[in-house]
Structures are given as C-alpha cells and as structure tokens.
Amino acid sequence: MKVKFVAALLVGSAFVIAAPAFAQEPPAQEAPDPTDPDPSDTSADEAIANSQPVDDSAAKIELLQQQVEALQSAIEQIKTQQAKVTPTWKGAPPYLDRDA
C-alpha cells in the first residue's frame, strides 16, 4: 500500500514540476527601427549646440567647492551622531538599599 502511495506522489510531482515546460513563450517585441532618430537626441544636440564652452580650471574649482561642501556636511553629521553615543551609566553601580 505504501509503495503505491509513494509511486502516486512521485508521478504527481513529476507532472507538477514538468508543467512550466509547457508554458507559452512570451510574444516577440518589435524593436524600434534604428533608422528613426530618437526625439531626445535632437533636444540633447540642441542643448549641446547652444551651450557655452566651459573653462577647465573653472570646472575644477566648482567641483572642488562641491566636494568641500559635501565633506563639511558629512563632518557635521558625524558630530551630531557622536553626541548621541554618550553612555547612560554614571560610572558606579547603585548601592541603594531599596528594602529600607
């Protein structure tokens, strides 16, 4: 009796496990035609054409200023976190006689 039961479970699980193999394939998506230009490309090209050239040293200075501001804000966050880490104990165990 147990052999038939185990055999039935094995056959049933084989059908359940094999079921995903019969699933339908997803429909093929149509790829956009590569000859059509993307509208975002034209707006980006216009923005690049209308932009003014940037001096390399000015760009480096601006980048360094942003880095300094980011580091200063990180330091301020660390300072506020360290103030919260102070211990709550007072250094000695309480020797109060609570029964009295």
Protein architecture, described:
- With about 100 residues, this protein is mostly helical.
- The chain is about 55% helix and about 0% strand.
- The chain has 3 helices and no strands.
- The mean pLDDT is about 75.
Briefly, what is this?
By secondary structure, the chain is an all-alpha fold. Helix content is 57%, strand content 0%.
Output the keywords.
100 residues, 3 helices
Mean pLDDT over all positions: 75
Largest sheet: none
Tell me the overall shape.
flat
Number of helices in the DSSP assignment? 3
Low-pLDDT sequence parts: none
Oligomer: single chain
Give the total of beta strands. 0
Task: Record the SSE blueprint.
Elements: H1 2-18, H2 39-50, H3 56-83
